[in-house]
Amino acid sequence: MLSLADLRDVAALGVDVSDARFVHFLLSSVSDAVRDAAESPITVTTVTITVPGTREQFVALPGSPIRSVDTVLLDGVSVGDYKLRDGKLWRPAGWVGQHADVEVTYTFGLDEPPADIRKLVATLVAAGVNERADGVASKRGLAYTRIDDYQEGYRQGSDEVVDLTELPERTRKALRTRFSAGGAYVTGSY
Predict the structure, then answer these.
(1) Dihedral of the alpha carbons of 77, 80, 81, 86, in degrees to the nearest 10
(2) Structure pTM?
């Protein structure tokens, strides 16, 4: 998959991108971490999933926005009497029951990563480039520095920063909330 930001995004932050190979490595790594935290590829992708059937008329599809549904198989047999409604497949007769398998091939996601996601990725990549310039782990976990009677304090345990390109937990939660397909939905309302 393509990275969620590019060299121009990183350069716009005033970061030296002359080592394009290294910057591309970081772009790929950070993009993977963001997608993992979001539990979504974010940009357009086509997937095939299998979900359990239900007696309800709706089967929710993970990911958004749903762009198209290519094929739907119910226990291996193609069905065509469905409609895509609000990111869910609707079928008048329902989906048989939990013993059935519903296999769906569909396309979802955004054409381009949103600007804030591009900036997030570029900022983390910039941190990685700067970390390399300063020496990897040279200030790992540094929380504060005092000048008079010189002191340094370091984060420890779960608060320790191992890699400056690592996503903080609050950012991971925000991405998951924004892009994950979780949540309740109403069935039988159409």
Answers:
(1) 110
(2) 0.75
Angle between the 115-134 and 20-38 helix axes, to the nearest 10 degrees? 130
Interval 122-141: pLDDT, tens: 999 999 998 887 665 556 66
Find how far residue 47's CA is from the centre of its chain.
15
Give the Å distances, CA to CA, from 152 to 60, 98, 129, 146, 163. Answer: 51, 58, 23, 6, 19
SS (H, E, C) the chain: CCCCCCHHHHHCCCCCCCCHHHHHHHHHHHHHHHHHHHCCCCECEEEEEEEECCCCCEEECCCCCEEEEEEEEECCEECCCCEEECCEEECCCCCCCCCCEEEEEEEECECCCCHHHHHHHHHHHHHHHHHHHHCCCCCCCEEEEECCCCEEEECCHHHCCCCCCCCCHHHHHHHHHHHCCCCCCCCCCC
Phi, psi of 185 (to 5 degrees): -145, 155
Residue range 78-88, pLDDT digits in tens: 999 999 998 89
The β-bridge partners of 78 are 73
pLDDT per position as a tens digit, 157-171: 665 555 778 898 899
Q: Which residue type occupies 56? A: E
Give the residue from 64, 63, 81 showing the smallest Cα distance to 72. Answer: 81
